[in-house]
Amino acid sequence: MLRQFVVFALVGAVGTAGHYAVLIALVQANMASVPVATTCGFAVGAIINYGLNYRFTFNSGKRHAEALPKFLLVALSGALLNYATMWWLTHQTTWHYLLAQLGTTGLVLVWNFLLNRAWTFAHRPAR
Questions:
Q1: How many CB atoms lie within 10 A of CB 8?
Q2: Reduced to 3 states, what is the DSSP secondary structure of residue 28?
Q3: What are the DSSP calls for 86-120, one per residue?
Q4: Does the residue 125 lie in any domain?
Q5: Over the chain, what is the mean pLDDT?
Q6: For residue 71, is it within any domain?
Q7: pLDDT digit string, tens, across residues 49-61
Q8: Is 80 helix (H, G, I), strand (E, B) or coil?
Q9: How many domains are contained in the chain?
Q10: What is the DSSP code string of 44-89?
Q11: What range defines the domain where residue 10 resides?
Q12: Is residue 32 part of a domain?
């Protein structure tokens, strides 16, 4: 499980780069609030991460018709956790939005890994 988590984190770094690029661009251009900008960035990261996790992290043999809807539900739960945590850290504390995003990314990384491992890409023994 540790090796799989490390691969998940490394693969996730690609999606995280997309997430942070969108977040920073939208906030610096005053085009969106921090919670909205991070949610847009999160969506970009999720799109990038699905294929990479399907192939490299979990080496899934599941049909995309089964895996993708589950992945999207997990991503939605992660996006909600990300939004709520970022809102709280940037509205109820004095944290800078990038520091808040670093902490939030760690939390959501563990959340998404555990749900994707246990449900989205879980290997079920044949009956």
A1: 23
A2: helix
A3: HHHHHHSS---HHHHHHHHHHHHHHHHHHHIIIII
A4: no
A5: 94
A6: yes
A7: 999 999 999 999 9
A8: helix
A9: 1
A10: HHHHHHHHHIIIIIS---S-HHHHHHHHHHHHHHHHHHHHHHHHHH
A11: 2-120
A12: yes
